[in-house]
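Journal club prep, shared notes

We agreed each person brings one worked example of a sequence with its structure written out as tokens. Mine is 2-oxoglutarate-dependent ethylene/succinate-forming enzyme. I'm keeping it raw so we can talk through how to read the token line rather than staring at a rendered picture. Sequence first:
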Amino acid sequence: MRGAFTNIPVVDVSALAPGAAPEARAETVDTLRDALERVGFAYLAGHGIPRAAVENLRELSRRFHALPDAEKMALKMNDFHRGYMPFSTSTIVTSTVDKVTRPNQSESLMVMHEVPEDAPYAGEPLHGPNQFPEDMPELRDAALDYMERLSALGEMLSGGLAEALGLPKDWFLPYFDTPTLFLRLLHYPEQKDEENLFGSAPHTDYGFVTILAQDEVGGLEVRNKDGEWIPAPPIPDTFVMNVGDILARWSNGRFVSTPHRVRNLSKRDRYSQPFFYDPSMEATVACPEEFIARGETAYSKPVRYGDYLLERLNKNYDYRKKAS
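Then the structure, token by token:
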């Protein structure tokens, strides 16, 4: 039953890789379908990303956030949504889960897809330069390597998601010819146990899928249909993957974009590195014609992904409100 869960399932996705036996792939697709229709979240095992790549980036994130404030502020967010986001400067006012009035208790470095200077779309919204500290060149190398690895994982997952919806394996590929990619290196200091104060307030994610590496501290919680907040504790060598609002729209509501939040009451600093794998800015997200042919009714209107995304960013981030 949709939203009826007390834990988050583990899905071994190794059979989605090229060369896997068809029977194993079909079984994995079935397991993934059940997880995303019922929970909207899954732990991904068998993903093929080396532990060293995850842990190296986490350590570099710790080093970045330990820099003096002046060095981090030299990289403050630019108009292309890249750079340093100081503590308490994002408030999820577009949340459909709760009325959010207090900013998130976190700071982060936002990295997005690299944009070649000669790209025809260079300079357009969200297509500009990333920002990294000059004295940490290894952070840039590690972040871009990590994004390349997780982009490949996102593409692999998209094939399984298409099949889980009864679509051809390559159905999503044309919508990701220049994917919109976000890597957010988050630091959640220890927070007070106060009402309506969160590391990340209750929300659903905007996009296609989120692939999260969290440290050993914990604090992520997912809400079921009964309104209970179910912990999503770290499991070694897995990612937490969840459906975003755009995938929920594309699936015509079959896959659920489930509310979640972060409360860091551990008395320790928490570090996480969510990666957001989203379609091209120009992609039109609409209920698949195949669904309509089967007699379904589209539950949402078509939307250009870039327009949809910019509306949410403009409302939720202080630096964009001041610029508008």
